[in-house]
Design brief:
With 260 residues, the chain is mainly α. Helix content is 75%, strand content 0%. It is built from 16 helices and no strands. The chain has helices at residues 3-14, 17-24, 28-50, 53-69, 73-88, 92-112, 114-123, 126-134, 137-142, 152-157, 163-166, 173-176, 180-200, 202-223, 231-240, 254-259. The protein is globular, with a radius of gyration of 19 Å.
């Protein structure tokens, strides 16, 4: 309620370890993908509240641009859509309508990227060749999320874990904030209070469940094969889901964790 939380959320969306790491290491495409994913999610929520096709079309446009910036975002978009499908609509009629509209949204996404995506697909272009023929277990290990000086769970939830930081490619954000773990715990407490409040308020409960589920899934997928307990999930996805091998840098899932 009020502008205070909104301003704080906006400030944190710009000033956080994920954005800092990608920006300082020159990964502008990841930043662009994050920005348009964020706006896509905003209009996706509006669509679910109103069921207006205009809101879905705008969300699809933003998602399509996010896909242009960051190819990995297609899996993020599909995961978000799946969670909303299973948790947001209780009756079959609305689920069927949701699926029909989802096909329209997918058409918009494809249209936005048709100039290059169809060429890559039909000509078996460079990206497809790289994903299917070049990426292997060595790539998965090299680009896996890193545990830092704590553990993979704490590092992931605090939006750290980028492989470039572990290679010493730049000064990490922790260099400038000496008590960063205390800061993170304070922010995590605020998030926990927000979740508690959201689950108590009837009008916020549904969205809270949806985004809590998305956040948990994003954290697990962001840890990737580096997680001793959940790493098998990402390994299975590498082995069985077409083109998911291209998502060798699993820490990009933290973009969705940040949005949540």
């Amino acid at each position: 309620h009020g502008r205070g939380p909104a301003y704080f959320a906006g400030l944190f969306a710009m000033l956080n370890p994920f954005v800092y790491s990608r920006l300082i290491d020159g990964q502008i495409s990841a930043i662009g993908g994050l920005v348009f994913l964020l706006w896509g999610v905003v209009y996706f929520i509006k669509y679910h509240d109103s069921f207006a096709l205009k809101e879905l079309a705008i969300a699809s446009l933003f998602f399509g641009i996010a896909f242009s910036f960051m190819l990995h975002s297609i899996f993020m978009i599909l995961m978000i859509g799946a969670v909303f499908f299973f948790l947001y609509f209780p009756d079959k009629e609305k689920k069927l309508r949701y699926l029909t509209n989802a096909l329209l949204a997918l058409s918009v996404l494809i249209l936005v990227n048709a100039n290059w995506a169809l060429d890559q697909w039909f000509s078996q272009g460079e990206n497809i060749h790289f994903i299917t023929q070049v990426i292997n277990a060595d790539h998965f290990a090299a680009f896996a999320s890193k545990a830092g000086d704590s553990n993979i769970y704490f590092n992931t939830l605090s939006l750290h874990g980028y492989w470039g930081e572990a290679e010493g490619r730049y000064l990490p954000s922790t260099y400038f904030i000496k008590n960063w773990k205390v800061v993170f715990m304070a922010l995590f407490l605020l998030v926990a209070l927000g979740v508690f409040y959201g689950l108590r308020e009837e009008k916020l409960k549904k969205n809270t469940y949806v985004f809590l589920t998305i956040a948990v899934l994003s954290a697990i997928l962001s840890m990737g094969i580096a997680s001793p307990e959940f790493g098998f999930i990402t390994q299975w996805m590498y082995d069985h889901i077409p083109f998911y091998r291209g998502f060798r840098e699993s820490q990009k899932w933290s973009a969705i964790l940040l949005i949540c």
